[in-house]
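Field: sequence (string)
Field: structure_tokens (string)

Example rows 1 and 2, in order.
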Amino acid sequence: MSATRDPRPLTGEPLALDLLNTRWTQEGALQDLLTDTDGLEVWLTSGGLDGFTADDTTLRHTLTARDALRAAVDGPPAQGAAAVDAMLGHGRIRPTLTPEGPGERVEFDDPSWGPAWLAARNYLELLTTAADRIRGCAHETCVLHFFDTSRNGTRRWCSMASCGNRAKASRHYARTRES
């Protein structure tokens, strides 16, 4: 797999959701970008995390974070809270003072926890911003997630061109078949 080509159907979501979207369905089969370090490198590059090493340890920590986030997003809040909190235990934000003024610097126990920690931290930011806008695609076979940025907050599909269109076509087919 090339580090320059991201095969996922939905990219560009906030980091936490982008990590969840490393699993998707294609023609009825579940696909997983993070089966090896090549896939991890693709995800790190697409997420602007090129400074991290795509090795087996980082992959293992990133998969642990994905499982924790999936439990938090798709299940009851209490179910994933402890797992996400465990991810956050591997890093911290350190206040700093620079010649330009106050700032913050992220520090990790071990750099291999960096992508996992950043994804967990991003999830907290999304919860603070608008928890009700973290959504899973409404199509019954889709496993993708998105952050609804529509004005009225009614987005239902990961992509209107794919899942939304399939749902409309299914409804149309059902109506015409009944007639």
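Row 2 begins here:
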Amino acid sequence: MPQRSVVPPGMEPLVERFRYSPGVLVDHTLYIAGMVGRRPDMTVVEEPEAQFAQALDNVGAVLAAAGGSFADVVEMETWFTDFRTHLPTFMRVKDRYFTTAPFPTWTGYGVVEFSTPGILCEIKCTAVLGATDA
């Protein structure tokens, strides 16, 4: 099957600097790379709730660039540097993005650190575009 790289406006530095695609579309399945609470200028959002919202906004940008939405997400994986502390806040933020059933599967992990200082969470999703239209 042919693959298409999905690079929303403003995420070009990820491809240029780190040489990876924010998303890869294969048929109707969109694989979204781990997104973090980083702005287009590559600075990290400091406040936890705002950082989680920025990370989900980044997921949403990849979805939109491929013609999808949060309703198309079938799987989500999250990694946290302080899982127990940040989980309640993350869940409140997440619920603003995932608003209708069926909700995606979700697996969360605790990790020691990320490659960029200040990152609290990383979110990776898989979406099947048009799955909710059936």
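free_text_note (row 2): The helical segments are 12-18, 48-65, 83-97.
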